[in-house]
Amino acid sequence: MTDECEDLAQQLIREFSSMRRFMSTCVSNTVSGEMAVMRALMLADGKLSPSQIADRAWISTPRVANILRSLETKGWITREPDKTDRRRVIVNVTDRGVAALEEKRRLSRRKTGEFLAELGSDDAHELVRLVHRMNEIIEKNQGARLREILYSENPKPKDGFSDTPTTNN
């Protein structure tokens, strides 16, 4: 890595750290809490086991258990025994949960739109372009692991990120 890239890396890390300090708990929860669990469920047509949710949302199993209790109290999910294996529990999204998630999405789009408007058109387009490019690079390097988590019934254990793409993670 060149000295210039290392300097830029340090600046980028500092900027992301600074942004994080100002993020609300709502944003934090979206990434690693209730919304992450709801997103994992919605991507799976609303039905997963708690361990599948943990793998797909990248959240620990004990944290998922706490989040599920909260979501169940709100009426956003139900839990029922698996019809094929009564020892397993299946989490289902309720109509109330779908409606709540849609409302959160609308709010998120509005708030993000306001932020992008404040950036201005040119900078907003550039930001979206750069984040898209970042995702392309991440997908290239980690795509196999992400696909495994999102679409596999039994993803392999998480073992961190590698520098090269592989299907043996």
Describe the structure.
- By secondary structure, the chain is mostly helical.
- Helices cover 69% and strands 7% of the residues.
- The chain is built from seven helices and three strands.
- A three-stranded antiparallel beta sheet has the order 1-3-2.
- A hairpin with a 7-residue loop joins strand 2 (77-81) and strand 3.
- Helix 2 (25-32) runs parallel beside helix 3 (34-43) and helix 4 (50-57) packs across helix 5 (61-74).
- The chain is globular, with a radius of gyration of 19 Å.
- The two termini are 25 Å apart.
- Mean pLDDT is 80; it is low at 157-169.
Short description:
The protein has 7 helices and 3 strands. The chain has helices at residues 3-22, 25-32, 34-43, 50-57, 61-74, 95-119, 121-151; strands spanning 47-48, 77-81, 89-93. The two termini are 25 Å apart.
Largest sheet: 3 strands, antiparallel
Secondary structural class: mainly alpha
- Point out poorly predicted stretches: 157-169
| Continuous helix count | 7
Mean pLDDT metric: 80
Strand order within the widest beta sheet: 1-3-2
Q: What is the distance, rounded to the nearest whole angstrom, between the alpha carbons of the first and last residues?
A: 25 Å
Helix content: 55-70%
Strand content: 5-15%
SSE order, one letter for each helix or strand:
HHHEHHEEHH
Shape: globular
Count of extended strands: 3
Radius of gyration: 19 Å
